[in-house]
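Customer escalation, tier 2.

The customer says the design service returned an amino acid string that "doesn't look like it belongs to this structure." They asked us to rerun it and document both sides in this ticket. The original structure tokens are below, unchanged.
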């Protein structure tokens, strides 16, 4: 019982903190990084000026994802008591999605070599044009990872929401809300694309609202245990 209380307490607090920390990701990345230029070479040329902000946003994103991971691990214990199969599959899907996001939370490392070559003395105009194309291809890979992560995370949220319907710790209201938000996030990439500003409206709740709500419920369970 004491072990359960400790897991619920720290996992719940990690979830609440993770949702709050993630609030700073769009603030940093949209507040300190200007809109992406339409000219591919301009995107590469400006990278040294925005690298610090991008690295800071990626680091905050990494911290938030680690905290949310702790929450998901803590949630499995109360969910498996009433819905073992959805609890297991939903947690696994969510963790796989987080793993993809964690793997791409240092994008500046991938772009640094391209930027260094672009700004190196003696780089010809033809080489710069080629590097801009390489940059676009690299960015496309990250877009693919983003889409895959969102789809897997959304599927995990839906399954976890189903598991919550029978779990007294969470209840039908939160379970239903999780299913709805997960479904909205799942169809978002197909309707507007993962890079669209409208997509952020669908994705932000699953990184801010749900971790806070889930974390608070898990934390309260530590008091009731």
């Amino acid at each position: 019982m004491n072990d359960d209380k400790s897991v619920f307490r720290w996992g719940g607090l990690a979830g609440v903190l993770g949702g709050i920390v993630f609030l700073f990701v769009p603030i940093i990345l949209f507040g300190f990084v200007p809109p992406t230029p339409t000219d591919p070479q301009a995107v590469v040329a400006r990278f040294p000026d925005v690298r610090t902000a991008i690295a800071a946003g990626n680091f905050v994103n990494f911290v938030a994802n680690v905290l949310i991971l702790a929450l998901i691990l803590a949630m499995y214990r109360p969910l498996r008591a009433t819905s073992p199969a959805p609890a297991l599959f939903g947690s696994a899907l969510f963790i796989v999605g987080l793993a993809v996001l964690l793997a791409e939370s240092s994008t500046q490392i991938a772009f640094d070599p391209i930027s260094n070559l672009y700004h190196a003395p003696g780089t010809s105009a033809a080489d710069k044009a080629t590097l801009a194309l390489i940059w676009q291809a690299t960015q496309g890979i990250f877009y693919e990872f983003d889409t895959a992560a969102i789809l897997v995370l959304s599927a995990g949220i839906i399954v976890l929401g189903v598991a919550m319907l029978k779990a007294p710790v969470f209840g039908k209201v939160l379970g239903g809300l999780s299913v709805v938000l997960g479904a909205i996030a799942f169809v978002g990439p197909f309707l507007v694309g993962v890079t669209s500003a409208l997509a952020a409206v669908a994705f932000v709740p699953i990184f801010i609202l749900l971790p806070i709500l889930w974390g608070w419920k898990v934390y309260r369970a530590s008091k009731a245990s």
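Tier 2 assessment: The sequence is consistent with the input. The chain has one domain: 2-224. Residues 2-224 form one domain. Sent an explanation to the customer and offered a walkthrough call.
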